Amino acid sequence: MLSAFTTSKPCRYAIDMKVAHECESQIFSLSDMHTHEVSLHSILFTASAFKEVCQGAEFSLLTRFHLGETLRCIQQSLQDKSTATAMATVGAIVNLASAASSFGDIETARKHMDGLCRIFELRGGVSPFGTAPLAEMKCQRIEICLSMTEGRKPRLLPDIQIWDSFMPISAIYSPPESTFLNPRNLTPDRRLLSIWTDLQYYSRLSNEGALIPPELFLFISTTLPNRLLQLSYDVQSTSELMRLCMLVYIKSILFSLPGVGRRMSYLSNNLERALQTFVPLDREHSTFLLWALFIAGGCIFEDFDGEWQREAIRETCKALGVTNWMQCRELSNTLLWIGDIHDPSAKEGFMKVFEAI
C-alpha cells in the first residue's frame, strides 16, 4: 500500500496537468464508454489485469473474457472503414499495448504499436486527435519503453529542435555548497549535462516530498528519454555509461513492475558491456561507477547474481572506503537517486554481495 502511494506514476501527473487546462471529455472521451463496446471491454480488461498482476495472480476467467471481447471488437472495427481509425478503436489498442508493455510482453506491445502507427498514418499523425490527449501520451510512453528495449529511436515523438534544459542555464553548474556530484567532471557534453540537471532536480523534489510540477514530469517522461535515445558514444566512454544509466533512471520511474527491466535487452546488454569496461580515473568516477552498478542491478538486471557484478561492487567499495550500506547510500544519493524507488533493491543487493564473501 505504501509503495502504491509513494511511487511516482506517469498517469498521476499527466492527468493533473490535463485536468488543470481541459474539460473531462477532452481527456478521456467518456462518451466512448457507452457508445462503443470495445472501449468498455478494454478498460475493464486493463483494470482487472493490472490488479491481478500486482497481486501475483494469473488472469482470471473474467479478465480473459474481457480480453477476448476486446480483441473481437477491435477486429470487427478494423474491418469497417468508418470505425477502423475511430478514437474508440485507437483507445482500445492503446490500452492493450499499455498493459502488454507494463507486464513485460514486449512482442505483443510491439505488434499493437505497429498497428497503431498504421492507423496514425491514416489519421494524419498523432497530434490531430483533437480529443483524448491521454491516448497520445500513453502511445508516446509505450514507444519509449519499446525503444529502451530495442535500442532504436522512438516513433510518434516530435523531432528534436533544441536541447535546452527544463531548468535555467545557471542550474547546470552546481554551486560550491551542493551535495550533488558535479556532472561536469564526468562529461563535457552539454546535452548530457542539461539532461542530468533536470533529472537531478527531479530527484531532489522527490526525496523532499515536494509537489512535482506536471510539466517537469511530462518533460522527463517523454522529451528526455527521446533525447537520450538519439545519442550514442563510444562503448568505453563515461558519456555512454552516463547516457545508459540516465535511461535506466527514467525507466525506474516510468516502468517499475518486476520483470520489465530484465526484458529490456538493449539496456541490459549494453550496460553489462559498458560497466565491465569502465575504468574509474579518480574518486568521483569511482562514486559514479558504484551508483551505476546499483541502479543497473536494481532496475535492469533485477539481481546481483553476476560474479562480475559482485566483484566490481566489492572493488569499488574498497576503493571508496565503503564498509556498510549507509555509506553506500550516502554516495549514491549524490547522483540520481530516489530513496523510495531505489533504496529497497539496492540495499538488498548490497547485503547479498557482502554476505557472500
Automatic annotation (TrEMBL):
Top-level taxon: Eukaryota
Keywords: Nucleus
Pfam families: Fungal_trans_2 (PF11951)
Keyword Nucleus: yes
PANTHER family, alphabetized: TRANSCRIPTION FACTOR (ACR-2), PUTATIVE-RELATED-RELATED, TRANSCRIPTION FACTOR DOMAIN-CONTAINING PROTEIN
Identification of the protein by name: Uncharacterized protein
Source organism (scientific name): Fusarium pseudoanthophilum
